[in-house]
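User: I'm new to structure prediction. If I give you an amino acid sequence, what do you actually give back? Let's try with this one:
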Amino acid sequence: MYQKILVAYDGSSFSEVALRQAADLARFCKAEMHLLGIVLTTGFASIAEGYASIDVWGMERTQIEAALETAASDLGKRGVNTFTSIREGDPANEIIACAYGLGADLVVLGHSDKGVLARLFEGSVGAKLLKDLPCSLLIATGKA
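Assistant: Good question. You get back a string of structure tokens that encode the predicted 3D arrangement of the chain. For your 144 residues, that looks like this:
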């Protein structure tokens, strides 16, 4: 069924739901799990980075690295073959590029309730993925 499952993961509650559902599928299908962390370098993040004296992207990268390391360790203990990577840029574009590069069979995302203003500035990741992904897309909902 699935051989390579890609999960966009940042340690948030909605990405935890995606991780849990993807892990169940990976165990069932004996698939590889690829956890992708994305340092957002577009939209509000680029404005903050440009005007602030703090390293917003560096802090975000550190947080994502820690979340990926913890998740990969936990999955490994449960027998799931897990790989991690971090990309920088627009989330939809990076997920699509990673899915193509891996030859992913499935991409799993958690559903977040972005407000209207955030969608206006950042766009809908899900809508772009539906249009451009080379594989199936699972939007995981529920509680972590």
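You can read the tokens as a compact description of the fold. Here is one thing that stands out. The CA atoms of residues 62 and 135 lie 29 Å apart.
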